[in-house]
Amino acid sequence: MAALSGRDFLSLADLSPTELQELLQLATQLKSQQLQLQCNKVLGLLFSKASTRTRVSFTVAMYQLGGQVIDLNPNVTQVSRGEPVQDTARVLDRYLDILAIRTFAQQELEIFADYAKIPVINALTDLEHPCQVLADLLTIQESFGTLAGLTLTYVGDGNNVANSLMLGCALVGMNVKIATPSGYEPNASIVEQARAIANNKTEVILTHDPELAAKQANVLYTDVWASMGQETEADDRLPIFQPYQISESLLSLAEPDAIVLHCLPAHRGEEITEAVIEGSQSRVWEQAENRLHAQKALLASILGAK
């Protein structure tokens, strides 16, 4: 994966189809321990949003590679006192080897990348969640043995996960259907970008009909109906999104061997039922584990681990 050495990873669109496939192959090799890589580097985690899976998986991945991690909690750094992003970026550049940022605005991430010479990884913004989708694709590949030609249906809010799923599916040759309530569609520019990547070889479909979207799906995927920063909207969203719940009924419309994914945390009884998330078709826990392996592959590739 020399092609990724020293590069930023701000969006799945930063990868070519070949690079994404090779990254997933490397993750598979690292997970099975066919391959063991080491790099004595320092990763900084600058997280303005709460995190369980992203924080822990990045930390464990870096430790397993033989590196170190510094948790740069904004509440105990000068970031919380308004230090300009560009100043923080230029200072951290002189201490760290790589930086993973979890924040609200994609623009803030891009400013960091512009001012820091070290690689910057998007660990989540309001626009995209590319590291999550690396793990999602790895999980789907493990379940079906392939990605090309499959259909993923995402049901719920057209949020950052939906945005990154469209790009990821287009890159690996999967069809993707996004079913949302009217007014909650994914980012229009990313829809265009995903369709350009798909280049009419696969489909990127938007719909307001979850049942129609679920038909012939190999993967049913959902996320919370109110993301971080939208908590005050949660009660108002409940009746709007209720028809978009992944239930046993909706799952029955998908292919018989379909799997169910959720990026977590899950609100059982809202976007997904208890029976589905705990059922035999759920791959949610494998999906969560794969955050570790996918991000380890990403770190190893960018840092040139050997």
From TrEMBL:
Keywords: Amino-acid biosynthesis, Arginine biosynthesis, Cytoplasm, Transferase. Pathway: Amino-acid biosynthesis; L-arginine biosynthesis; L-arginine from L-ornithine and carbamoyl phosphate: step 1/3. InterPro entries: Asp/Orn_carbamoyltranf_P-bd, Asp/Orn_carbamoylTrfase, Asp/Orn_carbamoylTrfase_sf, Asp_carbamoyltransf_Asp/Orn-bd, Orn/put_carbamltrans, OTCase_ArgI. SUPFAM superfamilies: Aspartate/ornithine carbamoyltransferase. The keyword Transferase applies. Carbamoyl phosphate binds at residues 51-54, 78, 102, 129-132, 263-264, 291. It catalyses: carbamoyl phosphate + L-ornithine = L-citrulline + phosphate + H(+). Coiled coil: none annotated. The keyword DNA repair does not apply. Residues 149-301 form the Aspartate/ornithine carbamoyltransferase Asp/Orn-binding domain. GO terms for molecular function: amino acid binding; ornithine carbamoyltransferase activity. Its EC number is 2.1.3.3. GO terms for biological process: citrulline biosynthetic process; L-arginine biosynthetic process via ornithine. L-ornithine binds at residues 160, 223, 227-228. It is found in: Cytoplasm. Residues 7-142 form the Aspartate/ornithine carbamoyltransferase carbamoyl-P binding domain. HAMAP family: OTCase (MF_01109). Belongs to the aspartate/ornithine carbamoyltransferase superfamily. OTCase family. NCBIfam families: orni_carb_tr, PRK00779.1. This is Ornithine carbamoyltransferase. It comes from Amazonocrinis nigriterrae CENA67. The lineage of its organism: Bacteria, Bacillati, Cyanobacteriota, Cyanophyceae, Nostocales. The gene is argF.
